[in-house]
Specification:
mainly alpha, 9 helices, disordered N terminus
């Protein structure tokens, strides 16, 4: 017997499957007909930007030292340099785990709060700490740590924005019609 559909999709996607396609959350994947599979594909495609951005966000975090005893020095340096505890593993662990299941909005909000809280000197200092870690782990000794760290921070910030923006653009027929009407009348 095939597993249920819900454990493999985010809550938002599962809710859309339930409301738009009238698919029960306990429906087994093997019970879907071709039309149901096509409907799932359409709804999943509508969420693909958010999933891709969430995956990239997790990829950026995975480039940093792991939150283990070996990476403890990095995380304490990042905390001191950035002036924010928002990025500490203890504060984002649950959000990272939820993101692994496709729910990246809470992590994205936390990241944007962390970046917003930093002053320019703190951001620069955090970029140096991050860049140093990336240079060591990626074996890129010929690149300046400050540049690498700042690029990583910018990418993290923009990717967090993409996660939130993709979530905001949920399937809204009225909004889509308003958009279409506005652009066809120009």
């Amino acid at each position: 017997m095939l597993p249920e559909v819900r454990p493999y999709v985010s809550t938002a996607l599962a809710d859309q499957l339930e409301h738009q396609l009238d698919l029960a959350p306990h429906l087994e994947a093997g019970q879907l007909d071709v039309e149901g599979i096509a409907g799932v594909a359409v709804v999943a495609a509508a969420h693909s930007d958010g999933y891709a951005a969430t995956g990239h966000l997790l990829g950026l975090l995975a480039a940093l030292p792991a939150p283990t005893a070996a990476g403890e020095h990095f995380w304490s340096d990042l905390w001191r340099s950035s002036g924010t505890a928002y990025l500490l593993p203890v504060n984002i662990k649950d959000l990272v785990l939820r993101s692994l299941a496709g729910e990246g909005t809470a992590l994205a909000r936390q990241i944007l709060s962390a970046v917003d809280e930093m002053t320019p000197p703190q951001r620069s200092a955090a970029g140096e700490v991050i860049g140093q870690a990336l240079v060591e782990s990626d074996h890129l000794p010929d690149l300046k740590t400050q540049v690498i760290g700042e690029l990583w921070l910018r990418d993290l910030e923009l990717t967090a924005w993409r996660v939130l923006h993709a979530d905001r653009r949920s399937d809204d027929p009225a909004g889509r019609k308003t958009f279409l009407d506005a652009w066809t009348s120009v």
